[in-house]
Amino acid sequence: MIGALALPVQPVAQRLRLHVERSWDGLDELDVGLFRLEGFSFAISKHDGNPLGVSYVWLTQPDEQADKALDTLLEAVGIGEDAVALRGDAHDYRASQDADSPDEVSGVTLPTSLWARFRRAIGMTSATQ
Fold first, then answer.
1. CB-neighbour burial class of residue 4 (10 A; exposed 0-12, middle 13-18, buried 19+)
2. pTM given for the model
3. How far apart are CA 59 and CA 36, in angstroms?
4. Separation between Cα atoms, residue 48 and residue 25, nearest integer Å
């Protein structure tokens, strides 16, 4: 996973002229589109159990330039950074952070937990939602 967009899969797929397939991955049913842009192999998906209005962006082949890949997608779709709810793989990010240190962003102290930031970005403010 290289990021999450605060957009549903369908508008992104329509912009890229993709066919979205309905599938099952062993966890849940999902909508998924597979495509290539400028040498990057992408998947964009949304599981039924995930929050509405959020799609996850994946690289289907390992690549050291994940940020560049996400920027390439944003440019191709014609959307800005404000549509990015999460950049990077949440599991890797969380494991690399010191649990006791808050992040400082524009003078605002945010919780270190990337999942907490992600929930806030998509409008979910508590873990029970």
1. buried
2. 0.69
3. 10
4. 11
**Interatomic CA distance for residues 25 and 27, integer angstroms:** 6
Query: Within the chain, what is the greatest distance between any pair of CA atoms?
Result: 44
The string of pLDDT tens digits covering residues 5-40 is 999 999 999 999 999 999 998 888 999 999 999 999
DSSP secondary structure letters along the chain: --EEESS-HHHHHHHHTPPPEEEE-SS-EEEEEEEEETTEEEEEEEETTSPTT-EEEEESS--S-HHHHHHHHHHHHT--GGGEEEES-HHHHHHHS-TT--EEETTEEE-S-HHHHHHHHTT--STT-
Q: What angle do CA 67, 126, 25 make, to 5 degrees?
A: 55
Whether residue 97 has pLDDT greater than 60: no
